[in-house]
Amino acid sequence: MTTQLTELDAKAAETGANATRVFQEKARGTVQTSTDRVAAVASAALAALHGVIRDYDVTYAEYDALKSWLIQVGADGEWPLFLDVFVEHVVEETVNANRQGSKGTIEGPFYVPNAPRAEGETTLPMRDDEPGTPLTFSGQVRSVDGTALAGALVELWHADALGFYSQFAPGLPEWNLRGAVVADKEGRFSFHTVQPAPYQIPHDGATGKLIAAAGWHAWRPAHLHLKVSAPGYQLVTTQLYFEGGQYNDSDIASAVKPELMIAPADGSVTYDFVLAPE
């Protein structure tokens, strides 16, 4: 008899493999970077690592443990997970330092393009018995000059009430809690969904071994993921967090910002987005 897997059977290796596949599909293009810039960035990165080795008198045993761990990260398919958790927040901070409009934060490894799309208002795809507290999330998309952006695209995805993402954990429908809305003529949008839960990033693989060895926790606070875009405007990728939520102050991914807090009342919350011109 075949046992039907559920989201509770999710393993880091399978999650990592899915994240790697999605990333590779997204990153098929070639980045045009000069040899001088590659040399400068690579040299600086290596110099920083050399400095750590000297500052901490790293032994050969520790060096071999590092090599073994790096190999295992690749074998587990966890490079997207590791980099998005520990590195992406600095890239995002640097890239968007001077951008006007709404605050962004990391995308993370669990975005999947081409989610089901609706006009103005939608209920995210979910199971008939989807656990969780109902949530209506609404808002308006505007330009920095206050102009409503009709036809702006708002993409929303998030974990379920047990902390798992569809397409990255078994047993979940393909587009569970993933969807997009094209804003109406006043730039307004609305989603009906459920509140997500805090969750531990996949931690039974190589990334989890580092977290355990360092004595850190693997938790992310509950959050909604969003991408907001409109022709002629800069895309905003962000996350919204719940006021007073557990792990807001100790997010393993260092992605929480005070501007990104929401406080639902009676099952509803409003948050507007402001986009800067390209």
Overview of the structural elements:
By secondary structure, the chain is an alpha/beta fold. It has a single domain (9-26, 33-278), classed as Sandwich (Protocatechuate 3,4-Dioxygenase, subunit A), CATH 2.60.130.10. Helix content is 28%, strand content 21%. It contains six helices and 13 strands. The protein has a six-stranded mixed sheet, with no helix packed on it. Strands 2, 3, 6, 12 and 13 form a five-stranded mixed sheet that branches. The longest helix has 21 residues, at 35-55. The radius of gyration is 20 Å and the shape is globular.
Task: Characterize this entry briefly.
The chain is α/β, with parallel strands linked by helices and 278 residues long.
Features:
6-stranded mixed sheet, alpha/beta, 5-stranded mixed sheet, 21% strand, Protocatechuate 3,4-Dioxygenase, subunit A, 278 residues
Number of domains: 1
CATH fold group: Protocatechuate 3,4-Dioxygenase, subunit A
Q: How would you name the CATH homologous superfamily?
A: Aromatic compound dioxygenase
Percent helix: 25-40%
Secondary-structure content class: alpha/beta
The tally of beta strands, per DSSP, is: 13
Q: How many strands, what sense, and barrel or not for the largest sheet? A: 6 strands, mixed
Enumerate the spans where pLDDT stays under 50 for 5 or more consecutive residues: none
- % residues in beta strands: 15-25%
